[in-house]
Specification:
single chain, Immunoglobulin-like, 2 domains, six-stranded antiparallel sheet
Amino acid sequence: MKHIFTHSRKGFLLVTLFVTMVSFASDNSFYSIDVAAKKTTLTISSVREGSSLSLKDNQGAILYSETIKVTGNYSREFDLTFLPNGKYMFELDKDLEIREIPFSISSGNAFFNKENEKVVYKPFIRVVGDHLYISKLAIDGEPLEIDIYFTNKENRYKELILSEIVSDETKIERAYKLDRLNLGNYEVVLHSADRAYEKTI
């Protein structure tokens, strides 16, 4: 790809990013941003091996993704100057949470606003014997839609056996008995905060 970057834009970008770095310096955060010329360095503290980092546009399309191979501090350089004007986010997916680091691009310049950061808590699905347990933190009050399907061993049909939406709870906890586990498989599909989570049992 061609990267067009004029000297005036470089100067403007450096001034903008210097102001951004100064604001980050006074804030204890799980990440920091450092920008020099065309490179934006994202440093994240306390990551775990196996976590994933993605760069997404405002439609949720993944522009870049990687699985983190270290535990501790992670750092990587990105060239964001080629991105069209618009809104984007880095997304760190680890354990039971997803951390969103939103930013916008204007004329090749990246602007990060810490006030728009967000933590999305993923649901936890656990099976013990023939019991299914689902739990989720819903600090922002986001509802959790639960759909459970049964498929017989011959895979001849898929039946929706339960569908419910749980809301108005900051800590969601549900338990279900899987009566026909010896006859086929269950598929659990969860939707919350514009995200989907699936597990086959």
